[in-house]
Structure formats: structure tokens, C-alpha cells
From TrEMBL:
MF-aspect GO terms: methyltransferase activity; nucleic acid binding
Keywords from the named record: Methyltransferase, Transferase
Organism: Flavobacterium reichenbachii
UniProt name for this protein: Methyltransferase
GO process annotations (BP): rRNA methylation
Nucleotide-binding as UniProt keyword: no
Length: 201
């Protein structure tokens, strides 16, 4: 596993072989960050990495200057490893051992980017619940983006706030954004006339 860009570009990280993970491949990760690079300046982005595993995605954000980063995983070994790497590289990553849904239900913070990489074998309903919970809890900043990594067997493009999807090899990334709203609603004609009359009087 290597960091593909930023301050620590090219640096290789070697997680323990006994971690119950399926890290995002370098090819898929590079393609993902090329997409994000068109939407964001990474410096100072507030990031939430769910099902963070080895911390692969968190390190990439951190190397590019994003901070603070919160990494959430239910496995003690994964969390311990992320803490070790974060300390070694002085990354602003807070690794938290928690069930993802419990974390989301108690979360009081909103993020610029929320990334989730659940095990591919989980039911479709679990993937949907992650997306629904994030938007119901208002955990995404107005100009933020949520990305779910999944296999071709999981379909998420029917959900509200769906934006677009990319596929790289056997990995699919589905992107969600808050629906844009027009804050400047048009006033009915009689309201406009009333305002003009009051101003003139």
C-alpha cells in the first residue's frame, strides 16, 4: 500500500497481514482522488472515513493536507494500526473504534467529505442505510460530497442526493451531494408591486 500524492507521495505503508480488510487498490484510489481533485482543494478539508480498515484512504487525504480526519472502524487491530501510522507521520487523524451506525447516530459534526467502504458482501439495505443516515443526520456540509465504494452488485443510484458513479476494475464509487436549492425564490408579481409601493410611500 502506498501514498500516491501529497507530502508523502510514494511512501509505502505495510499493514499487518492479519487485519480483516480489503484495501482499495492503488489504481482505484488514484482514479478516485483524480475525481475529487476536480471538486475540492484538499488542504483543510474535514473528512470522515467510515469502515476505514488499514486507513488507506485517510492517509491519502492527510498527505494532501486535509485535516481533521476521523477514521471509524469496528476492529481494534485496524484502529490501533491507524493510530500508529498517524503518530509516525504526524497526521491529524483521530481513529475511533466503533460500530459505524452507532457513530453516525451520535455524531454532532458535519464534514466536507464522507467516504465509506463497507465490506462488499453486506446487504444492499446496509449500504442504503449508510447514505440515508448521513443525510437524515445532516452530517455533510452544504458543498460537501459523500462517496460509497461497493461492488457491481450494489445499486445506489436510486437514492436521494445521488450525483454520479464511476467504476474502476471491480470497484464502483457512487457519489452523493446535497440537492441544490434556489435560495432566491421568485416573488409573485403582486408581492413585487406591494414592495415597490411601500418603498415609494
Amino acid at each position: 500500500m502506498r501514498i500516491i500524492s501529497g507530502k508523502y507521495k510514494g511512501r509505502r505503508i505495510f499493514p499487518p497481514k492479519n487485519l480483516p480488510v480489503r484495501p482499495t487498490t492503488d489504481m482505484s484510489k488514484e482514479a478516485l482522488f483524480n475525481v475529487l481533485n476536480n471538486h475540492f482543494s484538499f488542504d483543510g478539508l474535514k473528512v470522515l472515513d467510515l469502515f476505514s480498515g488499514t486507513g488507506n484512504i485517510s492517509y491519502e487525504f492527510a498527505s494532501r493536507g486535509s485535516a481533521p480526519i476521523t477514521s471509524v472502524d469496528g476492529d481494534f487491530g485496524c484502529v490501533k494500526f491507524i493510530k500508529q501510522v498517524s503518530s509516525e507521520y504526524d497526521f491529524d487523524i483521530a481513529a475511533t473504534k466503533s460500530d459505524v451506525f452507532k457513530f453516525l447516530e451520535n455524531c454532532k459534526t458535519s464534514y466536507d467529505i464522507i467516504f465509506a467502504d463497507p465490506p462488499y458482501g453486506l446487504d444492499q439495505a446496509v449500504f442504503e442505510k449508510i447514505v440515508l443516515t448521513v443525510f437524515e443526520r445532516d452530517l455533510l456540509e452544504d458543498d460537501g460530497m459523500m462517496i460509497i465504494e461497493h461492488s457491481k452488485y450494489t445499486k445506489l443510484d436510486h437514492l436521494s442526493n445521488y450525483s454520479f458513479q464511476k467504476s474502476y476494475g471491480g470497484s464502483f464509487f457512487t457519489f452523493f451531494e446535497l440537492n441544490s436549492t434556489d435560495d432566491d425564490e421568485e416573488l409573485p408579481d403582486d408581492s413585487i408591486i406591494k414592495i415597490i409601493d411601500e418603498d415609494e410611500g
